[in-house]
């Protein structure tokens, strides 16, 4: 009777061993899945971070390349290290400034020359009747003779005035000294002084002559004394 009991006991315990043995692989598989998921998450985060760093480095490289193309920054950097480079830059800047000033002056002179050409081609403003005593003169000289008499000078002063302004401007309304900037028939310096006789001082011979005679009278007394001074010194 004892042997059959031992067989039943063996049959009951055998399934429990198989159950315990199958639990361990399943737990291990779950653990591996969890570790893999966590590892995948960390790997994704790492890849995102690496991509962000790479983008920043790429942008930095581009900005550095652009800065390298800025020649002024490059020269400034060199000048800070080498006094000879700084001296060369200063010289180049001074020459550029000088050339710009010359170009500006040339442009101004060209514009004035064009304006003068247009003015010379226009009919002079209507002056009015010229005294018969001035019949020996024409054009601007005739106006000068008439204004001379109006100013209270004698006709004997006209030859001196004629020689003086022949020398200064040849009686040209738009005559300009490119060196000094003196302008007009009397070569006023600056020409804008003649605005005291009228806003049309650039083109109206009568306005210029009135100013010139007033200047002569106030400084020298008469045109002949002004002419004597011009002969002695080269200017009046």
From TrEMBL:
Residues 1-20 have a biased composition (Basic residues). It comes from the Bacteria. This is Lytic transglycosylase domain-containing protein. Residues 1-21, 103-133 are annotated as: Disordered. The lineage of its organism: Bacteria, Bacillati, Actinomycetota, Actinomycetes, Micromonosporales. InterPro entries: Lysozyme-like_dom_sf. It comes from Luedemannella flava.
């Amino acid at each position: 009777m004892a042997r059959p009991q031992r067989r039943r006991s063996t049959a009951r315990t055998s399934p429990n061993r198989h159950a315990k043995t199958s639990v361990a692989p399943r737990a291990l598989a779950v653990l591996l899945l969890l570790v893999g998921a966590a590892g995948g998450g960390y790997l994704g985060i790492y890849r995102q971070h690496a991509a962000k760093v790479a983008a920043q480095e790429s942008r930095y490289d581009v900005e550095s390349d652009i800065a390298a193309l800025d020649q002024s920054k490059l020269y400034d950097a060199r000048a800070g290290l080498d006094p000879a480079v700084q001296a060369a830059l200063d010289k180049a800047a001074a020459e550029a400034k000088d050339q710009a000033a010359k170009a500006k002056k040339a442009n101004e002179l060209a514009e004035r020359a064009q304006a003068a050409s247009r003015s010379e081609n226009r009919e002079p403003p209507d002056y009015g009747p010229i005294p018969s005593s001035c019949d020996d003169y024409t054009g601007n000289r005739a106006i000068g003779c008439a204004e001379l008499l109006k100013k209270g000078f004698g006709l004997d002063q006209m030859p001196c005035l004629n020689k003086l302004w022949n020398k200064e401007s040849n009686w040209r309304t738009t005559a300009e000294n490119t060196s000094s900037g003196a302008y007009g028939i009397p070569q006023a310096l600056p020409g804008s002084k003649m605005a005291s006789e009228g806003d049309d001082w650039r083109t109206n011979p009568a306005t210029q002559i009135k100013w010139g005679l007033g200047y002569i009278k106030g400084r020298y007394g008469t045109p002949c004394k002004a002419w004597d001074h011009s002969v002695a010194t080269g200017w009046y």
